[in-house]
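Lab meeting prep.
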Amino acid sequence: MNSNAPTLDSSAIGLSTLCLVHCLALPILGASLPLAGVLAEAEWIHQILALIAIPITLVAIARHHASKVKLSFVAPALLGLSLLLAAGFVEALHDYETLLTVTGAALLTSAHIWRWVNRHASSA
């Protein structure tokens, strides 16, 4: 297994967590802090986070694919990434942005946690 895999998984999990914090916590803070309210509504933050997720996810999938194809990792990772991108860039889905972001981030995080746990279980 590739020595960069734990770093990729950690980065992906951290980025997905950051997405969730942006999507869920900033609106709550926005009610009390004006700057947080501006950041909660800033579409560019969501788009940047989604764009950063593309190379991390694709490299993790490519490295995973090179060692052993596991649909249980690749499918939720690609679906999660697709949902994040749709929420950030498809204006017609604006009303569902929070749902799509939370679902996409949860799928991506779950895929990377699954891979991380399975890697540690197979090396033990």
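Slide two material, second protein:
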Amino acid sequence: MKLSELSFTTNLDENIARMKELFAHDNTFICRIAQGRGSPALRAALFFFDGMVNNEVINESLVKPVTLWDGAPLPMDAAIAEVLHTNDCAFDPGMEKLFAAFLYGDTIVLVDGDSRPAVVNTKGFARRGPDEPNNEKVLRGPREGFTEMFMGNLSLIRRRLRTPQLCFEFMQVGSVSHTTVCVCYLDGIVDQTILKDVKRRIQNIHLDSVLDANYLNEIIRDNRASPFPTAGCTERPDIVAAKLLEGRIALVVDGTPVVLTVPHILQETFQANDDYYISYLYTNLTRWLRILGFILTLTLPAVYVSLLTWHQEMIPTRLLFSIAASRQGVPFPTFTEAVGTLIVFEILKEAGTRTPDTIGQALSIVGGLVLGQAAVEARFVSAPMVIVVAFSGVTALIVPKLRTATLIYRFFLLVCAAILGLYGVLLGLGMILAQVCHLTSFGVPYLTNLLSGETRSHTDVVLRFPWFAMKPDHRFLAGWNGVHR
């Protein structure tokens, strides 16, 4: 029997037989029959999955009240009102909603003589606490992070935005997984055109399953082929609350701690989690360092290769002699040496990321010190190249949100430098800038606020103004003429 073919009757024994047939190959499926003391007695069947429910709730709120009932049999709606002890019960919600809740840890209740079911909230599966995300640690500020618990994540947002303007709208995606997605926004602040566009894109998703927020990200985002992120992601509820206050939309996906925020613009990639919890003077200094680090990680290897290959006259004489001496015996051209060293560096970084912490730390030390020193002594690479690649790799860690873009465009600029020298580097940077200017996120230009003429839209871009200098309306769309404020 298929789920679409299932229907309930007034005969409880027939309903039990149909449910057991449907889940005949699932050993976690439990059918519990409870009977009252009356004559004739109230008879009920409870269906749930072992490991998904809270046994105490089932025993105390469902089974015990039925067994203690000494009156006549009741229809399902009357049993909910007079017998069952529960504050979260849906009566005859429809088969689709009924089984969506049942497969997620709720309990189906049927009574003899009534074909209308009830579904009771009895979720009790294992969960982890809202600990601070490892990849989004802060020096100061809240230490909570999202978990895989859907309703728990929504409660973390609700605790920070205690206003009736906060709206949660549920949608389901995935023809097999039936994953719940919550569209969160602040009514009166969000742009309605963007909100409708977000809902439309989610409704047009045609996948068997959606198991993580990245499934949505790759489908609904603008400019899918671009390495620049046009949809933000975070595991911190305080960041989501801040984005909602700016007029953005948050997408919470059931089963994952990652929450998407849209629209997402370039300035967000240079903002750190604790920029707003520490002194604005220190924040501005570190934000400029992030911008400088992003520029260096892109251009430093390409500039080094172009200078040694095409523009040696631009290098100071003593430095040129030092580099030439270190390159004696190296069998590879500068371009090949740079590409090979960068590839080895990325391999070591990926290996350190995918291995356990203790082994990863040892691997980083071995790769960074032992292999690097051995490669220089064996004349496979020169010492200046190791320094350039290592510095480029370290600066890439300053802006983790742009790691895909830095990895791709670093090699792109290397090729441009090998072909045309510094002119190629400038040409490559111009092509990258042209692409960034063309990017949008749900119709919002990627460089919004950076190119705006309104002063209030610049209070949190390359610099963070102190809170006493912030305008009350500091929404990120405030300077974009395409949005009606």
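Talking points for slide two:
The mean pLDDT is 87.
Residues 3-120 form one domain.
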